[in-house]
Amino acid sequence: MSQDIFTRVHPVVAPTPGKAVAGPKWPEWLLMFDFETTLTTTQEPILGVYRLCRLVGQHYRCVEEGLIHPDDATPEELATFRHYAAAHEPDLGVKTFPPKLTLPVLSRTQFVNRHVWKMFRTGGMVSGFHVAFDLSRLAVDWKASRDGGWSLILAQRRSKKTGQLENNPERPRIKITARSSKSAFFSLTMPVRPKEWPHKGRFLDVRTFAFALFDESFSLKTLCEHFHLKGKVDHEPSGRVSAAELNYCRGDVRATVDCLNRLKDEFDAHPISLHPDQAVSPASIAKAYFDVMGIVPPREKFDTSDEIHGIAMQSYYGGRAECRIRHQEMPVIHTDFKSQYATVNTLLGNFDVLTAERVRFEDATRDIRKFLAGLKADDAFEPATWKRFRFFALVRPKDDILSVRSIYNGSTPNIGSNRLTSSEPLWFAGPDIVASMLLTGKVPHIERAIRMVPQGKQKGLRETNLRGLVAVNPKTDDFFRFVVEQRERVSKSNEALGALLKTLASAGSYGLFVEVNPRPHERGGKVTVFSGDIPLRCPTAVLEQPGRWYFPPIASLITSGGRLLLAMLERRVVSRGGSFLFCDTDSLCIVGDHSRRWLPCPGGPVVKNGVEGVVVQSRRDVEQLVEAFGRLNPYDRKLVSKILKIEAVNTDADGKPRSLRGLAISAKRYALYEWQAGTPCLIEPKAHGLGYLYPPVAEDEGPPWHADAWEWLLRDILHLPQIRPGWFSRPALMRVALSTPQVLRSLPLTMRPFNFLFYVLVDGVVGYPRGADPECFTLIAPFSKKPHEWMDATCQNTHDGAFYRLSLEQSPVFDRVIPQTFETLLARYRDHVESKSLAPNGERCEPGTRGVLQRSRVVVAQHRLIGKEAERRWEHGDDLSLGDSKILEYRPSVRRTTNLRSLRRAVRQIGVRETMRRSGLSQHTIEKVLAGMPVRPRTLARLLTAVSAAGERPS
User: Can you tell me the distance from the alpha carbon of 444 to that of 401, in angstroms, rounded to the nearest whole number?
Assistant: First the structure.
């Protein structure tokens, strides 16, 4: 059965320029503030606390601490503020004369006028922990900005014409565009007199800053614990103005300033010119080190054509993740590759490309065909061979095992490593082609190949010191190899440096080379994209702006190289009659145990007495696999002894091998455990696909709920007695952050940006009240960390404003809403199918399918072009509002599609000689078209006219 496939395109859009921040790296003044809010869905501010800090030496010290109240605070609330201020002294870090003995109490308007505008005018920094949320508490109005973000209005005035309040055009707005749930871009819009506002505004989110430095998500509590600082005040927010609430908010602001000073110490240890408010991710730190080493971004120094970028993007796929044995307990030995993408970069010599003076892409069709024809499986284990994999080939696949992006589950595209057949050729990266050869035993049909060849060494490269401690010279050191080796050298003696090197090995090895930032196309219209080497003009409402370090040829080779490592390992395992439970980007969970034996399993490759099964690899077998990959190790063996390692999960606390068991449901949904006294004891449960649910267990109620969930799932699948968790009947809720205006399409416009609330999952069968239209029923509830109170929450339908109560049973008048519970969702989770694979019998994978799955066979029906793939962060607990399941699809005009997809077929029907006569084009030009090589648009137009006149008009 044929099906559509999806490939990425290269957009012809200028890369994102580097944005310089005016002023010193750390400004003299910092304004830190925080708000407490009501506990309703509107989360209106009830009180705030601020600290005005000055840079004294290396740290920010508080020179003024004060309280903030809403402009419409009641007399009773104002009295609480005054009484508290009179009874408490400010916590100052800088002595003043005369000494400040009272806490200033400012209204929201006074705070903005006295401090916020001053920060903007003088170049000071505005900061907070999740500062976007607190800035939106200051706003008196808000609008959607053109780039898909928010525009916050902080000031209003009386209109001279109407006497009504209007937004003040003489004051700047704050524009916030969410980049992810962990970061956002901030800027000031220019008011009517921009000369009065010479600075662009500087904003530092402490949460984002910590993530950029440590590649770890922190709460304020966990960040204080990380630095061994006095943490948050022990208090349960009440949503009301009180002395306890003010104490709590003061403690948060104090702790945030303390954490920022510790983060500043860490950041200043890096000899980079990056400003702290530009550090939005770990990749920011990696890019800054590339800059300080003098490396010029590839697109700024290489004259690489859009055709080449289009070829690389068509061949680009992410990491490989799949379940091979489903719903069947297996003994397993879990393995993974050391710093996989850094290792691949080193093997392929990608740092030579990154630091080259120039790069040439040469036609290598004949040479690549000859090279592949003589390539043996063992050759892939030689480091010298890998640099010859640095090519791209136009392949006409016929039952070749290649990455293919298609709709397997009936709704959204996914990537599978499957058997692909296509009448039209497609571009693939060299390592993927070698991987297919290893898995199928045959060379794919190659119509054309190009090789990437770096030449010379870029001028201006210079040595730097990582975190001021480890010298690296880009002229002589392979950066990717260097950071991995040095991490192994220092990780035990210098934890902070080891963490940095780990971050650089990860963040600097891959994502920055394929970074594109979608933004609205302000004028609409068309954009040119390249699919392979073919240009297309497509209408689009979104522009995909490449990042500054965007260079698809490197990005495509990196992920392709990772898949080759997995294919090499898979081939070795399968050749011994074995199999694997699952694979995930850099790991393969091999069916293995202490000793080698045969084990029955539906669909297994080894049949005994008519029973299908697999050969369980012995631990020695797996150790031999590890040793085999030692030949490929590009590192100093004294520092990195193995690039394939047996994971620590395979050993107990004493370092002895354990009898590990595994059970998988689908890709990324698995659990590893061991049997103790007849009970499966979880060691590593994976919560992928459950993270979008807010935990139904409070922090103080017991262990993480995912462990309880997986224990229930395991016992259910293994037909063991089950223990029903106490939270099973709690409603399934998703925490939604209003990070983008698109979330408000169906939510009340009165809600502030960046509010947190719950989205209620309604039972689709019996959950809706009488007369409700499911298409117009979106239920929200106030956010609460108390799961036992969720069923009592007052919920609101955002379409008509009606209020409802939740219940597990319908009332006699059918006015209640029955939510999905964790019990119903876990039953669905258990039945989730591995849709991109087939059942052992070759049929579709169904909820009851168990055993060794087969690869799907994909015959291409239509080739569809897409942009950046849908974000799936919400599946493991990230911001749902950024997890739009839609993908950007480019649809070229019918005429253009006809030209490109059918023209070559029509030319072949007429014949080259007759086409030459009718079009007046040379044989060389026509052969270029038939080979898929780029030609000018007017050449295509002449060919179209020629074949149309011959009665062979493409259709």
Answer: 9
Return the SS3 of 833. Answer: coil
β-strand partners of 402: 418
Which 8-state DSSP code applies to residue 17?
P
Query: What pLDDT, on the 0 to 100 scale, is given for residue 211?
Result: 95
Token look-up 């084009």 returns 921
Task: Please check the confidence at residue 879 and state whether its pLDDT lies above 60.
Answer: no
Yes or no: say if 560 and 566 are a contact pair by the CB < 8 Å rule.
Answer: no
Single pTM value for the model: 0.89
DSSP, residue by residue, 442-505: S---EEEEEEEEEES--TT---EEETTTEEE-TTTS-HHHHHHHHHHHHTTT-HHHHHHHHHHH
| The pLDDT value given to residue 701 | 62
Average pLDDT over residues 882-908: 63
Please report, to the nearest 10 degrees, the dihedral formed by the alpha carbons of residues 271, 257, 130, 278 taken in order.
-20
Same domain, 112 and 212: yes
Q: Which residues pair with 536 in a beta bridge?
A: 529
705 and 772 part of one domain = yes
On whether the CB atoms of residues 694 and 879 are closer than 8 A, the answer is: no
Helix (H) or strand (E) holding 689: none
Question: Range with the lowest mean pLDDT among 386-400, 634-648, 732-746?
Answer: 732-746
Chain centroid offset of residue 638 CA: 34
Task: State which residues form the domain around 767.
Answer: 668-833
Total number of domains constituting the chain: 5
Separation of alpha carbons 56 and 29, rounded Å: 10
Q: How far apart are CA 455 and CA 478, in angstroms?
A: 16
Same domain, 154 and 255: yes
Q: HEC profile for 582-624? A: EEECCEEEEEEECCCEEEECCCCCEEECCEEEEEEEEHHHHHH
Q: Are residues 260 and 212 in the same domain?
A: yes
Determine how many CB atoms are found less than 10 A away from the CB of residue 157.
12
The CATH number that applies at residue 208 is: 3.30.420.10
Q: What is the DSSP letter of 880?
A: G
Assigned domain for 35 exists? yes
pLDDT per residue over 915-939, tens digit each?
Answer: 887 777 888 788 777 766 666 666 7
Question: What separation, in Å, do the N-terminal and C-terminal C-alpha atoms of the chain show?
Answer: 22
Phi, psi of 132 (to 5 degrees): -60, -40
- CA dist., res. 752 & res. 503, Å (int): 35
- Report the 3 state secondary structure along 77-106: HHHHHHHHHHHCCCCCCCCCCCCCCCCCEE
Is residue 53 one of the residues assigned to a domain?
yes
- How does pLDDT run across 586-620, given as a tens digit for each residue? 999 999 999 999 999 999 999 999 999 999 999 99
In angstroms, rounded to a whole number, what is the distance separating the alpha carbons of residues 862 and 860?
6
Look up the CATH number of the domain holding residue 909: 1.10.260
Pair 617, 578: CB distance under 8 Å: yes
Please tell me whether residues 780 and 904 are part of one structural domain: no
* pLDDT tier, 339 (very low <50, low <70, confident <90, very high otherwise): very high
Which residue, 84, 76, 81, 103, is CA-closest to 92? 103
Same domain, 540 and 499: no
| Residue 439: inside a domain | no
**DSSP for 614-676, written as a single string:** EEEEEHHHHHHHHHHHHTT--S-TTT---SEEE-GGGB-TTS-B---EEEEEETTEEEEEEEE
931 and 801 in one domain?
Answer: no
**Average predicted confidence (pLDDT) for the chain:** 89
The residue that leads in pLDDT, 523 or 216, is 216
- Region 166-181: mean pLDDT is 88
| pLDDT for 840 | 96
Domain shared by 811 and 939, yes or no: no
**Residue 880 confidence (pLDDT) above 50:** no
Confirm whether 192 is domain-assigned. Answer: yes
Beta-bridged to residue 727, according to DSSP, are none
What are the residue ranges of helices labelled H in 718-817?
A: none
